[in-house]
Amino acid sequence: MSETTTPALQYRFDGPDDAPVLILGPSLGTTWHMWDRQIPELTKQWRVFRFDLPGHGGAPAYPGGSVSELAARLLATLDAVGVQRFGYAGCALGGAIGAELALRHPDRLASLALIAASPRFGTADEFRQRGVIVRTNGLDPIARTSPDRWFTGGFAAAQPAITEWAVQMVRTTDPGCYIAACEALASFDVRAELGRIGVPTLVLVGSDDQVTGPAEARTLVAGIPDARLAVVPSASHLVPVEQPAAVTDLLVRHFSTAWQPAYDSTTGQIAIPAAPAKPALAVAVPQQSGPVAEIAPAAVQPEAMGRPDPYDAGLKVRREVLGDAHVDRALATADEFSGDFQEFITRYAWGEIWDRPGLDRRSRSCVTLTALVAGGHLDELAFHTRAALRNGLTPDEIKEVLLQAAVYCGVPAANSAFKVAQQIIREETTPEE
Known about the structure:
The chain is an alpha/beta fold. Helices cover 49% and strands 9% of the residues. Strands 1-3-2-4-5-6-7-8 form an eight-stranded mixed β-sheet, sandwiched between helices. Helix 16 crosses helix 18 and helix 17 packs antiparallel against helix 18. The radius of gyration is 24 Å and the shape is globular. It starts with 10 loop residues before the first strand and ends with a helix.
């Protein structure tokens, strides 16, 4: 395949060829079969298009490292089959793709449903830590704990066949594609843009969802101008599987009554549809002019010597490499005495050097680990070992770096480094029970 060709997504159609198209987007670690129990009812009115994420469900393993890239692949696939305008319902990562489409390609979208979704999924550290676990241990630890995240305890106990099916979905996913999807969720954040979503939107959530629960759903509803909330009782994160009848009914009601017509280029106008009926279980939420959780804009530094100031880029790279928790601690402890130094390393070490294109981050981690061993900087070696894991180095590769350093930096220095790195690797790669 040419590197310039956008890889197509694996997909299937169900329903009448002449019906309007409704797309169903899957959650991380699932396949299009998570929607099987919605299909009989939805295909009475829509031509349903389902797709698999890269490396999921036997799909080609071309990793997609951002939500925008996954949305672009979906649009390229739709273009290839002649679908221009559609409704969209997505669960979790599938919901993030839907929000991306609504923000970047509003002309393609007629109506939207965000299920078990959030404008920001936890913290970047959580998903990058999950990537470290998969890279080190494979997908089995994630698969074994998936039922706890996806279903209520009662459902998992009463439906062992469905629970085992869910575990096998994760186990058969390509690990590299799963890690890339974690990275996509880690970098996804549209809290400051919710007010620009202009299509009718249903926000649907399980009452017992501990991953992206009612609080995240209410943030979406408060920020999206034309949004309604539906809370499904006795359901957790994978609510379309756990409560299929309730979800199907809500989707039918929403897409039957809230389908925005296309922009008419001949008149320059758009028809205004009748106000949609509230779906069952909907909860009225006061509308606000902007999102609940705004991101404070970064301080703007003056440009020097005709170049853009590298501080903002440096802070972004520093967070991506070291993690939000580490950077937040460093910045929180900065005072009048140390604040200038924190600004200095953010601007020059991270904005000027780590952000250069000449080496990838894996290579920069190798160089950094070696230099820290040579200098005997064990405190920094600890958090840069964590950074190396986040940047894609495996424990075996870190071991090889330290062995190489032993030859050129000395055995005593490498001995101390191995003790530090061994402890960090144990902490970072041991799956949570």
